[in-house]
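Data card: per-record layout.
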Amino acid sequence: MALVGAAGAGKTTLTEALLHRAGVIARPGKVEDGSTVSDHEPEEIARGISLTLSSAPFSWKAPDGLAYDVTVLDTPGSADFAGAVDAALAVADLAVVVVSAVDGVQAGTHVAWRLAAEAGVPRLVVVTKEDKARADFHHVLEDLRAQLGDGFVPLELPLGEEHAFHGVADLLSQEGLEYEPDGKHHTTALPDDVADEEHRLHDEVTEEIVSHDDDALERYLGGDEPSAAELERSLAHEVRDLEAFPVLVASGATGVGVDRLADLICELGPDPSDRPARVRAGETSVEVSVDPAGPTLVHAFRTVADPFVGQVTLLRVLSGTLRPGDRLLNTTTRTEERIPGLFRLRGKEHLPLDAAPAGQVVAVAKLTATPSGSLLAERSGPGAAMSAPALRPRPPVYGLVLSPVTQSDDDRLSAALTRLVAEDPTLVVDRSSDRTVLRGLGDTHLAVALERLSRVFGVNVSTSPVPVAYRETIRRKVEAEGKIKKQSGGHGQFAVAQLRVGPAPHGAGLEFVDSVVGGAIPRNYLSAVEKGVVEAMAHGGPHGHPVVDLRVEVYDGKAHSVDSSDMAFRTAAANGVREALAAAGTVVLEPIDHVRVTVPASAQGDVMGDLSGRRGRITATTSLDDGTVVIEADVPQSELTRYVLDLRSLTGGRAELEVSPGTYEICPDHLVPS
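The structure for this 674-residue chain is written out next.
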C-alpha cells in the first residue's frame, strides 16, 4: 500500500506506529528525533520531512484469522518529490490517503487523491492527529465530501478528541474500542454523547454499502440486518471497484486506532490477485495475472543510491517467483541481468530473502542496466515483448547551473549525474549549451539532489541561476568590408571580403548568399568566408549575446596568390560581420516560453493577474469538469526564473505548472540586460 497525502499529515509517524504495533520495532521513532524507519537519509533527518519513497514491510494477523504480508510505501508530501508518489502508485494495490484532523483537506490531499484516481488505485482515508489540539474529525469528513466528491464511507468515530482522544466507535459492529497505553484495545459501551450519532451513521453506512448489491439490498429492505462481517465483505468489493472509500480515524503518536487500521487495510484492501498488473505489449495494454507459478515478470519501479552497496532497485514481482541467480532480460535496454541476492528494504535495513512470489515488493543491488520503469522478463517468454506503462510526465520547472569545484569533481560529475537521474527520473540534466544545467521540480528538489551528489557520490559543485538565453539580430541592412593584411616575413595573411549584412526572417538563422563574380574571391575560399560569419555570430554582438537571423551576402573581395588562405578569409569575414553589427546596431531578442498552469477556478483571477504582471499574454483559458481551469500564456523567460515557487505561494500549492520553449521577441530597450 502507498501512504500518500499532504506534507505534515502524519504519514511517517503512522508508519512507525504500524511497525511498532506489528512487533517489528521495539518502540516507534519520532520525526523530530530523526529516529524513524522511513526517514533515515541525512537530508530527511535535517529537514524533518520525507524526501523519497521508503519501504516498510510487516506481517499482520487480522481478525479473519489470515496472516497478511503488508508492504508500506511511505511517500513524500512535497510537490518537489511527486515522482516518488508516481512510482509508489504504479505498483500499489491500495492507496491510504492520510489527512490531518487539525489541518483538514490540504493542497497535498487534493494532489494525492487525483494521482491515485488517475492511476486507478483503490483508496482508503485515515484521519490522523486526532490527539492534537484543534482536531476535528467531523469537519474533515465534511471537507472530504465537499472537496473530493462522493463515496466516502466513515467506518469509525473518535471517542473524545484532542488530548481526550482515547478510542474509536466501530460503526459496523456498533461497539466502542477503548485503547490502553500499549496500543491494545478492549470493547466498551458507547458513551451517550456518541451512541445516537453512531446508530444514525450505522444505518446510513449500511444502506450505502448494500445499495451496490441488489440481493443484499433486497434482504436489507426485507428486514434482514447484515452482520458486521457481511458488511465488510461487501465493502471490500466496493473498495476494489473504486465505488467506496472507507474513512478511519487514528493517532500515530498515541497508537489509538492503529491496530484497527491494520485490520481494515488487510480485510478491505484488494488482494494482489484481484488487481492484475497492466503492461504494454506494443501499443496494446494487457493484463498480467498474479500467478506465483507463471512466467517471471518483474517491474523495477524505483532505484536508490546506497553509499555502501551502490545502486539498489526496488522491484514488484508481477508474475512468477523471483529467485537469486535468475537471469532475466530487461525489455527496455535488451540487456540480460543476473539477479544477485534478494532482500526486502525496511528503511535502510536489508532483510534477506530466498524467493519472492508474485505480488511481493523486494529489492536487489547492482542492477546497473535497469533504470526505473523497466520490466525484467524471461528471455523466451511472452514478457520479453512487454514494457511497463510510462509514468506521468513531470517536466522540470526549475534549474541551476552546476560548476565543479575541482578538476576531480569535473571528471566525475557526468557519471554521478547519470546515477542521480537513474535514481530520480524527475531530474533532468541539460547539456545543450556549454554549461551543465540540472533541472527539477523546485528549489528543495535540487537542493536535496546536490546534497546527495556530494554525500553519496563525492562530487561537489557550486551553483548559479540559469542565465536567460538572450539573442541579438541586426537592426538594418548595411555594407561592410572585412579584411586582414599582415606581413611578418614568409607567408603573410591577406583577404578582403565585401559583405552586405541585414536581418533575415525570424527563425531563419543564417542565410549565406554567394554573389561573387569574376573570381574576385576564389571558389575554394567561400566556405571559409561562411565559417567566419558563423564564428562571428556565435561570438556575439555588441550586447554580448549570440547573433541570429542574419542575411549575409558576399559580393566582392580580393585575394593574394601567396598570402591568402582559409584562415585569412575566415578572419576577414568575421571582422566584416562585427563591423556591420557595430555600424547598424542590434536589437536584443528575449526568449518567450509557453506556460500552462492548472489551478482551481477560485485562483484563476490571481494567477492571470500575476502572469499579466510578468508581461505575459494570456492565450487561452479552459474550464475542466473537476473544477479546475487551465490557463495558457506566453511569458518572457526572464520573468519565470522562480515562477514555480511564487505560483505555489500564490495558490497554496494547488497549481500545476508546465513550461515549454516558445519563440523569440524583441526585448524592450529599458529591460535589455547590461
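Known properties of this structure: DSSP finds 15 helices and 37 strands in the chain. The first strand starts at residue 2 and ends at 5.

See the next section for split statistics.
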